[in-house]
Write the structure tokens for this entry.
Amino acid sequence: MRLGEGVQGWFEGERVAIGASGGYCEHCRSCRRGKLVHCEAGMVTGATFPGGFAEYVVAPANALARIPDELSAVDAAPLACAGLTMFNSLRRTGAGPGDLVAILGIGGLGHLGIQFAVKMGLRTVAIARGPEKGHLARALGAHHYIDSLASDVASELQDLGGARVIAATAHNAEVITAAVAGLGLHGELLTLAGVFDPVQINPVHLIQIAGTIRGHSVGSPHDLEDTLNFAALQGIKPIVEVLPLEKAADGYQRMLANQARFRVVLSTDENST
């Protein structure tokens, strides 16, 4: 890393990551209230300033997060987006050690969500389609697996005591709708996937359990450092496919076709394959 004129608090040569939140203006109402990720300037990496598909990027200093020595750059990249989303959202729920937390969907978000939830001491249920995903869920540390094609998800969750949190990472409104009745007392539906179709909710059920529905964005650079440090401490790693930078278009198409397992990482290392 090289530093621009007047930058303080950083040193040349440090390994840093930049998340989806590409810094903050420090002056808007959200920033002044400490809600940095909701900065009204909308500073998004790759949108507000170029970045992500190049060897070098010029970024605001307040967008940076230090990468722990224990993490490779390849592992840090998905943790700076999907990992940050999962860690930061789960730690801000009301779930505590021993509570039942369901990760709905085992993909780019979900496979990291399972690992974070387990390492946070949460009784973790993975939910996905098909029996083959059960092997992966258990390899990631999940305590329970529910095949949504073979079981009634809500009933299975209630049999386990009712979920304190359902973290919805699946891009399917019907799947989310089918799981909501599995929330237990003070249960929380945590919406993380970009689903544009409406999810049906039974208000009476929410009233009976004093439940909530909450959306969550990624997080600030400070949250990202917490994510990276926790992942390094607990040995949490993403499952990735590494491609050289010149094959960025191929990686992008694999993502669009939902073929990536589970994140495509572009590398400028000559040894990347």
